[in-house]
Amino acid sequence: MKNFFRVALSLGVLTCLVLLERKRPLRRERESKLRRNGRNLAVAALGALTVHLLESPVVGPLARVVGRRRLGLLKLVTLPRTLEIIAAVVLMDYTLYLWHVLTHRVPFLWRFHAVHHVDLALDASTALRFHFGELAASVPYRAAQVVLLGVDTESLSYWQMFLSLSILFHHSNVRLPRRFESVLSWFLVTPRMHGIHHSNEPVEANTNWSSGLACWDRIHRTFRLDIPQEQIHIGVKGIDTEERVQLPKILSQPFRGVPEVIAFLRDRNAD
Ligand SMILES: [Zn+2]
Questions:
Q1: 115 CA from centroid of ligand 1 (Å)
Q2: How far is the CA of 21 from the centre of ligand 1 (A)?
Q3: Using CA atoms in the order 188, 226, 95, 48, what is the torsion angle rounded to 10 degrees?
Q4: In angstroms, what is the span from residue 197 Cα to ligand 1's centroid?
Q5: Using one digit for the tens of pLDDT, what is the confidence trace for 13-32?
Q6: Distance 63 CA to ligand 1 centre (A)
Q7: Cα 154 to ligand 1 centre (Å)
Q8: pLDDT in tens, 161-171
Q9: With bands split at pLDDT 50, 70 and 90, how would you rate the model's confidence at 271?
Q10: What is the DSSP secondary structure assignment for residue 241, as one 8-state letter?
């Protein structure tokens, strides 16, 4: 899939979500949306640069080698092409579920992933807000996914497309009709599901780890959709003022021992 098409589709979906967020918000804002979005876009710009400089030069060539030399699980069997691409997307999605659990369990990774979680609200801009350190740390994992699963260039680009659209959607602050959302949550991760994952209560946050297909949470019994969004405090407990989440603070956060971030991990792992 051409890069241009991917970027255009993502921007189109992002625009629709931003319009819907204004029309049908799911949760109340806790600080100026403009300031929050600006901050998230600044983190996103550093992230995009990291992907451009570190991830693409490693993962892109590896996917080409996988295709040329038929390496990895999916290349061991000869599947019809469409089926192979679907299997690649599903397997990448499942292994991303496992990576997401790791980013919450391994202290070094949590330090970086916590930057995504200290956002005081949740909307489509949060989907773009991943610390450059987290993106850099994920490169060896992504490389292993591609090589071991046997994901070639075309399959990789379908998965990247699916993931970008899915994370924009489930981070968005869009109020979907409740019944529609509960049916949809059998298939895809939805905004209410992911809102629970961003709760500052460990027992609530230790759920809904999926990033695309919701079945992984159903299979692992980590699925929850029973907490009303009005009852959820988004963020990391103890970090609840705008002053604590300003841009320089969140960028340096992984390199400082922030007690609330460390305590949140301890409470989650104890849960
Ligand atoms: Zn998370």
A1: 10
A2: 21
A3: 70
A4: 7
A5: 999 999 999 999 999 888 88
A6: 27
A7: 27
A8: 999 999 999 99
A9: low
A10: S
Q: How many angstroms does the Cα of residue 198 sit away from the middle of ligand 1?
A: 7
154: Cα separation from own chain's centroid:
21
- Hey, which residues does 234 pair with through a beta bridge? 199
Q: Output 202 or 116, whichever has higher pLDDT.
A: 116
Q: Give the span between the Cα atoms of 129 and 126, in whole angstroms.
A: 5
Distance separating alpha carbons of residues 159 and 35, to the nearest angstrom: 31
Q: Is 258 exposed, middle or buried (0-12, 13-18, 19+ CB in 10 A)?
A: buried
237: CA distance to ligand 1 center in Å? 14
Distance 65 CA to ligand 1 centre (A): 31
Ligand 1: centre distance to CA 224 (Å): 14
95: tokens are: 């292994």
Q: Over the stretch 118-137, which tens digit does the pLDDT of each residue have? A: 999 999 999 999 999 999 99
CB neighbours of residue 61 within 10 Å: 12
